[in-house]
Write a structure and sequence with these properties.
The structure is a single chain. Helix content is about 10%, strand content about 40%. The protein is mainly β.
Length: about 230
């Protein structure tokens, strides 16, 4: 795993500094001291390799919120099974105060989207299938680019004009009937810089989700025949 700039790392297989504990009530940060308090009940609990949760929310510490409010950052989210329960969305990571940071599935159209304040939003079709059993990564640089990766492959990039200005707390999971979901959170990483494409791919390979099938064949050129419009 890339460690340069790593602020927080949550790994469900190693949810404590001493390895895996199915009864843990704290998801320990393997990169520092940004531990997250969790619960164990019928809705939320650690499996062997994931934290399964539905209809609950868990807050990240202030340092993680400060990271995504910086001029550049990277967020990586690895998930397993996802069931969309919300009426309109499935929001995976969110800022409670103003919704300026939101990684979510939009049910209408089945889009995977990332919202950062008033910036243009990277958005991908077939969002649910792209998300499930995948690593989603977002690299963000103010006055630069926001790039949305799936399993190590850049699939959408847009210009960034302003920082997120997210009002906390930043949290994962959701209790809203509009945005609820049942999801296996396998790992999450937060960086205070925008990782390179090769670094994103290296982390996806570490997760075991790297998939170069998304890469277009660069030997092919798209064109339109004017007379036939083919």
């Amino acid at each position: 795993v890339v460690t340069d700039g790593l602020v927080a790392w949550y790994d469900a297989e190693n949810n404590t500094a001493d390895g895996h504990d199915a009864d843990a009530l704290v998801w320990e940060d393997l990169a520092g001291e940004n531990d997250v308090a969790v619960t164990k009940n019928e809705n939320s609990y650690f499996t062997a390799d994931a934290f399964l949760t539905q209809n609950e929310e868990f807050n990240f510490p202030q340092e993680v919120l400060d990271t995504v409010n910086g001029t550049e950052f990277t967020v990586e989210l690895e998930v397993g099974k996802v069931d969309i329960l919300g009426t309109s969305f499935a929001t995976l990571i969110n800022s409670k105060g103003n919704d300026n940071f939101a990684l979510f599935i939009r049910k209408t159209g089945d889009f995977l989207e990332f919202k950062s304040s008033q910036n243009a939003r990277p958005k991908l079709e077939n969002g649910e299938s792209l998300l499930e059993k995948s690593t989603i990564a977002i690299t963000f640089k103010t006055n630069g680019l926001c790039v949305l990766y799936v399993d190590g492959i850049a699939l959408s990039e847009l210009d960034v004009k302003e920082t997120c200005n997210a009002s906390g707390p930043l949290f994962f999971g959701h209790t809203s009937s509009e945005k609820n979901h049942k999801t296996e959170y396998k790992s999450m990483r937060f960086y205070d810089r925008a990782l390179s494409e090769s670094e994103i791919q290296g982390n996806a390979k570490y997760n075991g989700t790297f998939n170069d099938n998304y890469v277009p064949d660069k030997s092919l050129v798209e064109f339109t025949q004017p007379s036939t419009k083919i």
